[in-house]
């Protein structure tokens, strides 16, 4: 890796492609979009969505790191004295990073009922520095992630290069009938996830300032991974999902200038694990346009059907498709159809009385990312997740 | 992958009319912010593009920073809502907010 970094830096240096002394220009659409990206990154990779995704099952420790390159392009003045773009205005990519840490401790672990306490935290960062430095930012996020209740969000929203911190401390009750996850979200929020595992029915949100569903930071609900094997049907039939999401947050959008992105309502549909090797996905953004159609291939073990009984997912997953990006003239964004590709691999090894796992993925033009950062072009996201599962 | 990421991170020169595009976007964005009406904002953007010509590529920026050409967009994007409402489709008044606007934009 170090060799690759050196080669890439030397190559870039020889060609004088970059700018070492760039200054973002306020007042431009790119600057404005960059600020929006920073705020939305904080809510997209917040502790709430992480807790549902990773901490409902038996995972005891999860450390999830993401780097999102090219989330926005910010007009900047290059004050270098040499190089290809010296003394000119150029478009500087804004990069985002997210670090999630989760701990999940089982207190009751019977077949009929499980009770766990958990801690989930999130640290999001935004950067316009050389990538040879920023590539390590998600790793460095571990320190504030562990100390989130003390750090809180004292530095949030202070510019294009900033960080935000968020955490949930709560508990999960899981039975054959229903699973409930709840906890304190930050200083003033109540996180709630209710899931019926047989039907896949679920609802997930964070309440702040009272129990008003119309004013929650985000709202997810519907059916996710309805698993017919629980009803005795063969696994090859697959797992349908159909759910609604309202993103991003109400409270993170501090100016009405961001209203174009403030009420994104999406219908998500998928049919996963057809013949235990194919997934189909689609998304439709209400009142805007169909967003994504993609197809994925994977190995038979990719989707765990009985995660709580110790079944682990591993292998490979490749997904490709097209995204329809609507035109947003007020953001200075041209619309169009973009390709999307996701390559992911994960594996586990028995160790320390449990299983150590690693997930590595790379994605070009993530549809979810383009939903929240519609001004991102050819964005590349990298993810490394390390896990420990108690057996 | 990391090498590719590094190369994708290189800055790209912007088109010569970018300062003018930014002014139009700023006017429309400010209109939507202050009025809450996206349709009005988009119509105003169309009208602005019909009425004004970009001459940013004719400005001699020697000895100055090219970023100065973006001052007009910065000022417009930060106009008070009372002024936005008052100016409406009268772009001359919008552009009088900063001397830098006349440097890069001319009526057609």
Would you write up a description of this structure?
- The complex is a heterodimer of chains A (391) and B (108).
- Chain A has 391 residues and is of the alpha+beta class.
- Chain A has helices spanning 2-15, 29-44, 47-54, 131-134, 137-140, 142-146, 148-151, 367-372; strands at 22-24, 59-78, 89-109, 113-127, 163-175, 179-185, 189-196, 201-208, 219-223, 239-247, 264-274, 278-285, 289-298, 315-325, 336-351, 354-364, 380-390.
- Chain B has 108 residues and is mainly alpha-helical.
- Chain B has helices at residues 2-8, 18-35, 38-51, 71-77, 81-87, 91-95, 99-104; strands at residues 12-13, 52-54, 105-107.
- Chain B has a two-stranded antiparallel ribbon.
- The longest helix of chain B has 18 residues, at 18-35.
- Chain B is globular, with a radius of gyration of 16 Å.
- The interface between A and B is large, with 54 and 41 residues.
Rg of chain B to the nearest angstrom?
A: 16 Å
| Pattern of helices and strands of chain A | HEHHEEEHHHHEEEEEEEEEEEEHE
Mean pLDDT of chain B: 87
Strand content of chain A: over 45%
- Mean pLDDT rating of chain A: 83
In quaternary terms, these chains amount to heterodimer
Q: Report the helical percentage of chain A.
A: 10-25%
N-to-C span of chain A: 33 Å
Q: Please trace the helix and strand order of chain B, writing H or E for each element.
A: HEHHEHHHHE
What's the count of strands of chain B? 3
Overall spatial form of chain B: globular
Low-confidence segments of chain B: none
Placed side by side, the strands forming the largest sheet of chain A appear as 2-3-4-5-6-7-8-9-10-11-12-13-14-15-16-17
Q: Report the sheet-strand fraction of chain B.
A: 5-15%
Number of helices of chain A: 8
* Biggest β-sheet: strands ordered side by side in the sheet of chain B: 2-3
Biggest interface, CB < 8 A: A-B, 54 and 41 residues
Structural class of chain B: mainly alpha
């Amino acid at each position: 890796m170090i060799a690759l970094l050196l080669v890439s830096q030397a190559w870039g240096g020889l060609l004088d492609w970059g700018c070492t002394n760039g200054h973002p220009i306020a007042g431009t659409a790119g600057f404005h979009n960059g600020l929006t990206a920073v705020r939305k990154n904080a809510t997209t990779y917040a502790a709430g969505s992480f807790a549902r995704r990773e901490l409902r099952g038996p995972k005891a420790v999860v450390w999830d790191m993401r780097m999102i390159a090219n989330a926005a392009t910010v007009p900047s003045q290059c004050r270098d004295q040499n190089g290809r773009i010296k003394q000119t205005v150029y478009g500087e990519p804004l990069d985002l990073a997210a670090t999630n840490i989760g701990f999940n401790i089982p207190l009751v672990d019977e077949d009929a009922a499980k009770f766990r306490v958990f801690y989930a935290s999130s640290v999001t960062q935004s950067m316009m520095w050389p990538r040879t430095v920023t590539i390590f930012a998600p790793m460095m996020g571990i320190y504030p992630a562990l100390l989130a209740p003390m750090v809180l969000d004292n530095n949030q929203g202070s510019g294009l290069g900033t960080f935000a911190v968020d955490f949930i401390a709560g508990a999960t009750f899981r039975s054959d009938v229903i699973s409930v996850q709840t906890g304190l979200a930050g200083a003033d929020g109540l996180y709630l996830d209710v899931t019926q595992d047989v039907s896949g029915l679920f609802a997930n949100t964070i309440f702040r300032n009272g129990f008003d569903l119309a004013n929650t930071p985000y709202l997810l609900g519907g059916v996710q991974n309805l698993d017919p094997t629980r009803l005795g049907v063969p696994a090859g039939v697959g797992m349908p999902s159909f759910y609604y999401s309202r993103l991003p947050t109400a409270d993170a959008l501090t100016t009405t200038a961001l209203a174009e992105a403030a009420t994104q309502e999406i219908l998500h549909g998928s049919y996963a694990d057809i013949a235990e090797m194919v997934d189909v996905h689609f998304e439709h953004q209400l009142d805007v346009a169909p967003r994504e159609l993609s197809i994925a291939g994977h190995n038979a073990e990719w989707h765990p059907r009985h995660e709580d009984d110790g079944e682990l997912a591993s292998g490979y997953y490749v997904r490709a498709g097209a995204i329809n990006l609507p035109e947003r003239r007020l953001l200075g964004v041209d619309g169009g159809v973009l390709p999307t590709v996701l390559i992911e691999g994960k594996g586990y090894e028995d160790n320390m009385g449990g299983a150590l796992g690693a997930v590595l993925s790379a994605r070009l033009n993530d549809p979810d990312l383009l939903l929240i950062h519609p001004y991102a072009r050819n964005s590349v996201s990298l993810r490394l997740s390390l896990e420990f599962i108690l057996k | 992958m990391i090498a590719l990421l590094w190369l994708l991170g290189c800055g790209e020169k912007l088109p010569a009319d970018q300062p003018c595009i930014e002014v139009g976007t700023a006017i429309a964005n400010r209109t939507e912010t202050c009025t809450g009406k996206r349709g009005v904002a988009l119509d105003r953007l169309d009208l602005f593009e019909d009425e004004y010509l970009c001459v940013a590529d004719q400005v001699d920026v020697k000895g100055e920073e090219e970023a100065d050409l973006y001052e007009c967009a910065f000022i417009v994007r930060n106009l008070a809502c009372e002024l936005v409402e008052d100016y409406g489709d009268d772009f001359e008044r919008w552009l009088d907010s900063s001397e830098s606007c006349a440097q890069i934009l001319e009526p057609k």
